[in-house]
Design brief:
279 residues; mainly beta; five-stranded parallel beta sheet
Length: 279
Amino acid sequence: MSRTLTISAPVTSDTGGITLTAFSGITLNNANSDILVSGNSGAIVVDANSNDNTTGTFTSSDSGASLNTSAGNGTITVTADDIVLTGTIAAGSGAVLLAPSTVITIGLGDAAGNFSITDTELDRVTTTGIITIGNVAFASAVLLDALTLDAKNITIVTNSTINDDDDSGVSLVTSGILVLTSDGAIGALGGGAGLNLDVGTLTVTATDGENVTVTDSGTGGDTTYSIVTGGAGAVTVTQVTNDILLTTITTTGTVALVATAGQINDATADDATADITTT
């Protein structure tokens, strides 16, 4: 297996997937460095740190370079100790996974982290499907700051915590769906607002019973919440503008909901399902 891998010409497949693997980094180094699956639903898999030693970066160094499965909507997976993305990732409606190869911190937007993806880099990732960041098996603390993601559907997974890196503004904006899965508290750091968001829908699937503290201070519209802590975590939701719309909040801990300038409503007013369960 190659220690490093540099791609300087197109790599294409019209019948199946493409896998690129190296110990210590993979680089797409010019505008011709396109990795293209042009048919079927073949996937692209990139592992830039296959021996998991924290020295393998995936680098797409030219704006003309791409990982592209949009013709067949195949999945794209990039595993590395860091990502430097000047080129594009395009999956059509396929899923995109961006994952650290070892237990290292994750910094998204302006937040610091060993595995770092900036807002500009995430703008270069396109799919109408789901972009997943992180690895649920790794205790990689996640920090967010100054992410503006239009209508992208984002899932963040970790076996550690998810936090805003400061309390000076919104950490993530999307009119799409934000899903958070962690094995630690969400919004415990970064000031009293907790994790400061501006999202259309927030789903928390688990925190291993740890607390969830979120504030939506955006003006884009109402926010729909579905939060399950998996234990006795306290849930605190503050909606600065617009309404809180509840699908479900499930925890054996306390629940505090504050709609500063709006209402608290059932997201589906005529259903028979409890919106808040604390037993």
